[in-house]
Design brief:
By secondary structure, this protein is of the alpha/beta class. It is built from 7 helices and 6 strands, in the order ααβαβαββαβαβα. About 40% of the residues lie in helices and about 15% in strands. The longest helix has 14 residues. The chain starts with 5 loop residues before the first helix and ends with a helix.
């Protein structure tokens, strides 16, 4: 029996769990619109260590594809563009991020920034009509979480929190 590692699990599964959350059959908000016949095109917002693990997982994911990035560091943008063949038009920084509303090649924004920046980027992604995954904790306060949920509901987009449930029965079964 092979040993289980978090990295290996992410590499094999990619964003499969996040993918299912964004699909209409299991979505959080009924109005979210994603065509189940195509790959889910994902933008990683924040290119820290965890985003790197997600990107590795996306390389082997059948249902998702890393399509874009959001970063404030030009050197990271260049390196990620080369590594993941990201088109120039899908590279954003925090100043021009709102232009993502015009990009039909982007379905979902996965926010992996420091916690204090989650709310702002979720609100901006929702305003752009993009599905959203935000890492835990969702926000700094319950009222910020409520504001994020309300914004996504009003925009008709799905909002999911990336949370690894190591001891949840369903996840234990997946690992088995």
């Amino acid at each position: 029996m092979s040993s289980f590692t978090r990295r290996g699990f992410l590499q094999k599964l990619g964003l499969g769990t996040a993918f299912t959350l964004a699909y209409p059959s299991i979505q959080i908000h009924k109005r979210a619109r994603i065509n189940p016949g195509k790959k889910l095109h994902i933008v990683l917002c924040g290119l820290g260590r965890y985003a790197g693990l997600v990107a590795i997982g996306l390389k082997s994911c059948r249902h998702c594809r890393l399509t874009g990035i959001v970063t404030g560091t030009p050197a990271k943008a260049a390196a990620w563009q080369k590594e993941y063949a990201i088109p120039e038009m899908n590279i954003y920084n925090y100043q021009n991020f709102d232009k993502i509303i015009h990009n039909k090649d982007i379905d979902l924004v996965y926010v992996t920034l420091p916690n204090a920046l989650h709310k702002e980027m979720v609100l901006r992604a929702a305003a752009a009509g993009k599905q959203v995954i935000v890492e835990k904790p969702m926000a700094l306060t319950a009222s910020d979480c409520r504001e994020m949920i309300t914004a996504c509901e009003k925009a008709g987009v799905a909002l999911a929190v990336g949370y690894r449930l190591h001891f949840d029965p369903y996840h234990i079964e997946i690992k088995r």
